Task: structure prediction
Amino acid sequence: MASLNSAAAAAATPVAPSAPRRPGTLRRLLREPVAAGAFAVAVLLVLAALLAPWMAPTDPLDNNLAAAMSVPGTEGLPLGADSQGRDMVTRMLFGLRVTLVMGLLSVLLGGAAGAAIGFAAAFYRRADGLLMRLMDVLLSFPAILFGLAIAAIFGPGIPAVVLALSVATVPLMARIVRGAALVVMRMDYIEAARATGMSDARLIARHVAPNCLSPIFVFATLRFGQVILLGSALSFLGLGAQPPVAELGAMAADGRNFLFFAPHIAVLPCLAIFVVVLTFNLLGDALRDALDPRLRV
Amino acid sequence: MSALLEVNGLARHYPVKKGVLLQKQVGTVRAVDGVSFAVNRGETLALVGESGCGKSTTARLVLRLIEPSAGSIRFDGQDVTRVDGAAMRSLRRRIQIVFQDPYASLNPRLTVGDAIAEPMQVHNIGNAASRRAKVQELLRLVGLAPFHAERYPHEFSGGQRQRIGIARALSVEPDLVVCDEPVSALDVSIQAQVVNLMKDLQARLGLSYLFIAHDLAVVKHMADRVAVMYLGRIMEIGDKRSLFRDPRHPYTRALLSAIPHPDPSRRGKVVPLGGDVPSPMNIPPGCRFHTRCPFAQERCRQEEPALRDIVPSHAAACHFAESLPDPGLNYAGGLSEAASRRLALFASARQRAA
Result:
């Protein structure tokens, strides 16, 4: 076939445009001002969480009861102190660390398992009924109940919270991925790929999964926010972060009792949760767009 | 000429189930119901028929994208329905498909180069460098430019995408290309380009086509032989010339006369087909076309006609194939004026290209 060059082809061959190469995913991501802002804040948040032990002015457990409930701006306590007189700056940094790890791990673990089940259900139609009914069973338990059960078995703590929230995320992700994959599976390019004789795993990895990214990203970022709030609820119930460990949700729950005398104890961790959730939602949206070749300029 | 693809008594029946928990079968959709044909090397067999007659199902059966309920498919002497594993893989390399919808047939997340190279990757043909070279060559072959390899499908027009789909099918040097209405989603002027491209490629590469279409002008231009399907069965099959000049089945006649015509004074000459296609869940007894056939007799309601040779290499499934009245239609070589004009357009597009 090497010598084949039709006259028709030669006549129709246009000249290569001299446009520069397309920018990479990261560069496209950073071109949007909102996305770039979210990216910067996310980097800051992750850095703050990672470097908490070195950045924090004090130990998160150092308490000075004399300074209890100091308002922000008090000398040496820029964000005040909590009910035990512990520095809020330190507590927030360490709390952010635990909250981020908890949220990300739960979404990643639960999302990955859910996506795998969703793809399997869409791909192997025989298994669909059984898999999705199992997901329905999981879906019928509230996340809090999982937390209770798992804490009862393994003892309360962050690992129990991550496990409970992961399990609670699995059926949701499985449903979303199954639906998206079913749509994609009906496209002709899937049949074309099948007709080449490629393996199922390759077909899913190369053709089905990349075309399901949009809903996965949207759901994962939404779920990240929900998971953090659920984790806080579990901590509040005493199933998650155990005092005196700093965790944003637990701190907010702790501050609830002093809402009228020292609102900053509850408000500051809530603000931090708000910033974290908002940042990752914006980032997820931007990432989804940046990964879609159809939206490239 | 030896047969490359031989299909015998091919059938695909879908059970229709009812009930939520205890499903029971309430019927059967007979999408393809005993189809036999052969495609010779280097030849184009066109499969025509109206929507829902089982053309596309037949195509997918040949590719073994779906499993047949009955019948055999022999490709180059091997029974496609019985092979497995490595033998199936090598068969898959030799039979490729081009789809109708150029917008759905390319993965939007893969560059055109990756899409074309993929079949070669799956079959471990060459290394990365040789595959890249082959992609460039294929792009040129179908009238695109090498730099197009880095672009994504959404950056192309429908006609260009169809060329990319053809390049992808050709990347593994198949013997048979199944074309499932490859031009029906394109503008007429683009159709001409793509149809001519496919003919050129066939001449150069010795391809065989199983060409599915409902557009008789395109079929007349492309095909060597034509098979007319109705409700999952072949009604008439024969050499293109013989079939277009002297259609022996009332359904084929109706199809030929139904090609739209701009001249209102000729409308009276169209053989009108009453009614709709019966449901493939409930195929009429006897000849499955008798409910709409203007020549139907009592025998047609009782006895299903076999597909039999009327003249050499031209068979029809009609009891009265020999005695049908002259259709009294001036087909202008079997086709209406409008269709002839389209053919002329194809020919002129080809001349321009040459």
Remarks:
- Confidence is low (pLDDT under 50) at residues 330-334 of chain B.
- The radius of gyration of chain B is 21 Å.
